[in-house]
Amino acid sequence: MKPFHTETVLQTTRDRVWELLSDFSLYPQWNPLFPKLAGPGTVGSSHEMVVHLPGIDPFTVQATLDVKGEGGLSWHSVFLGRPVLTWTFSSRIRVVAPESLEVRLDSEFRGVLAPLFRFALARSMEEGMEQLNQALRRWGEKGNVRCMRC
């Protein structure tokens, strides 16, 4: 099934954006799509993730964290068993020049119910991913991430 996909170019460093994406305690301050993420922060472990898609009440999913090389995070959730519905959300950072990088976001549903979920959530998912791109630009291109902890 075709994933939802966005790319945005930011004028900042890889380390700055990686810190935003990998420090889950900062999510409530800047991340409109995943305003809460609780868990141990280790690869392969389960995390409680609140998803807030535009036009839909926030809902909670259990998601497993995977790190995809340098600059990539992936979340995987299984609903009602693998053959029925799974959801994967990933972000990847690619440096395109000094102080310039591309962030790619992908969201994909798989399983028997995937076409229904893709259809039902298409507009909200696309808007939510665009809001996440805007938040990455807003927070990624300005000052030090540590200031968010103040």
UniProtKB/TrEMBL annotation:
Q: Name one Pfam family in it.
A: Polyketide_cyc2
Please give the CDD domains that the UniProt record associates with this protein. SRPBCC_4 (cd07822)
Q: Which InterPro entries match?
A: Polyketide_cyclase/dehydratase (IPR019587)
Q: What is this protein called?
A: SRPBCC domain-containing protein
Q: Which organism is it from?
A: Geomonas oryzisoli
